[in-house]
Amino acid sequence: MTRLSINLNKVALLRNQRDCGYPSVLGAAKAVIAAGAHGITIHPRPDERHIRRTDVYELEVLLKSLPSIEFNIEGYPTPDFLELVCSISCDQVTLVPDAPDQRTSDHGWDVAGHFNELKDVVFKIKNSGARVSVFIDPNPDIARLAAQIGADRIELYTGPYFEKTIPLTVYQVTADTAISCGLGVNAGHDLNLENLSRFIKAIPECKEVSIGHAITSDALDMGWDRAVKAYLAAIGNEISIIQR
User: Fold this and answer.
1) Scanning 111, 124, 197, 202, which has its CA 20 to 30 A from the CA of 175?
2) Active site positions, annotated
3) What are the C-alpha distances in Å from 186 to residues 4, 36, 110, 157, 214?
4) Phi and psi at residue 209, to the nearest 5°
5) Which domains does the chain have, with CATH numbers?
6) How confident is the model at residue 238 (pLDDT cuts 50, 70, 90)?
7) Sequence-ordered list of residues with C-beta below 8 angstroms from that of 6, at least 6 positions apart, any chain
8) What single string gives the DSSP state of each residue in the chain?
9) Are 70 and 37 in contact (CB under 8 A)?
């Protein structure tokens, strides 16, 4: 079964526009979990323009009380980021190659070019008890390298799938290669209600999709409960007919 992890960065971004404390990141986490989401994803950046360290600690407390809900923290492996993820309780750390001022993730790791660095980072995080996923472009050769640095999973960057610049068959081949190397397969970026079901039908072995921008946008129209249920239906390969 593919699990749905909700990225709450856009909730935090909206909250940070004012000093009134809402919308609440913690409240949104409780709402999506109540609606059936399997996990929470956050991507704290150094400038705290959306997720703040205080959010990380508050979510850690919440999710410790809900052991069936996974806590996934994304980020570039700076010393501060590594100190954070290795000092708290989280299920998965997803390593992304974002520069500090980058608006959003828009490419995967050049694993060959950062091989030794990433291998050391993966070892350190796994030693702290978390699973490690590496954000990569759809390329079977990169998937093989991700296995060689000791990662547990890859996360396929699905922006080109949304943009229709890389065919779904390339994602299938990359996923098959990763699985043959002993890796789990996650996916994320620009997955939405129009393209998610097709992706999961093509790669049913996908263990997790992380979705933030699209589901937050849909929740503005539908509310969190209906939006989460619509995405769960898409993951289940059902046709969800919902007035948006």
Assistant:
1) 124
2) 43, 74, 189
3) 10, 19, 18, 9, 17
4) -115, 135
5) 3-235 (3.20.20.70)
6) very low
7) 28, 29, 32, 37, 39, 40, 41, 210, 211, 212, 215, 228
8) -PEEEEE-HHHHHHHTTSSS--S-HHHHHHHHHHHT--EEEE---TT-SSS-HHHHHHHHHHHHT-TTSEEEEEE---HHHHHHHHHS--SEEEE----TT-SS--S---TGGGHHHHHHHHHHHHHHT-EEEEEE-S-HHHHHHHHHTT-SEEEEE-HHHHHTSS-HHHHHHHHHHHHHTT-EEEEESS--TTTHHHHHHH-TT--EEEE-HHHHHHHHHH-HHHHHHHHHHHHTT-------
9) no
pLDDT at residue number 104: 75
pLDDT in tens, 53-109: 999 999 999 999 999 999 999 999 999 999 999 999 999 999 999 877 776 777 899
How large is the angle between the packed helices 224-235 and 25-35, nearest 10 degrees?
50
pTM of this prediction? Answer: 0.94
Cβ(8)–Cβ(39) below 8 Å:
no
Single-letter amino acid code for the residue at 38: H
